[in-house]
Design goal:
Keywords: Plasmid. By secondary structure, the protein is an all-alpha fold. It contains 4 helices and no strands.
């Protein structure tokens, strides 16, 4: 293994301070979920692959999570049926 000078290694060391933060952090999308006010319970379901593909596309494009999307859908369905 060959020896490298310290100056050539300095390019491998990340920058310090605000410049490093701006360059290394990904763009964050705003979270659309409400602050957690209710206790949640686990629920396991199986959905069609075509529905999963469409859900993944929607949450990506809308910048939301599957949890947000499903909470909204369940709320709308319960309201529609009067519960």
């Amino acid at each position: 293994m060959s020896k490298q000078s310290l100056s050539s290694l300095s390019s491998l060391i990340p920058a310090k301070g605000e410049a490093a933060k701006a360059e290394t952090l990904p763009d964050e999308k705003p979270r659309l979920s409400k602050p957690l006010k209710e206790e949640r319970h686990g629920l396991t379901i199986r959905i069609r692959q075509s529905h999963n593909d469409r859900l993944r596309t929607m949450v990506y494009r809308e910048g939301m999570t599957k949890q947000d999307l499903l909470d909204r859908a369940i709320d709308e369905m319960l309201e529609r049926y009067g519960y």
